[in-house]
Amino acid sequence: MKAVILAGGFGSRLSEETILRPKPMVEIGGKPILWHIMNIYSAHGVNEFFIALGYKGEIIKEYFLNFYALNNDISIDLASGETIIHDGNQPKWKVHLVDTGLYTQTAGRLKRLQQWLEKDDTFMFTYGDGVADLNITALLEFHKSHGKLATVTTVRPPARFGRLAFRDDLVTEFYEKSESSEGWINGGFFILNRKVIDYIDSDETIWERGPVEQLSRDGQLVGYRHHGFWSCMDTLKEKNILEELWSSGSPPWKVW
Question: The CATH number of the domain where 117 resides is what?
Answer without folding.
Answer: 3.90.550.10
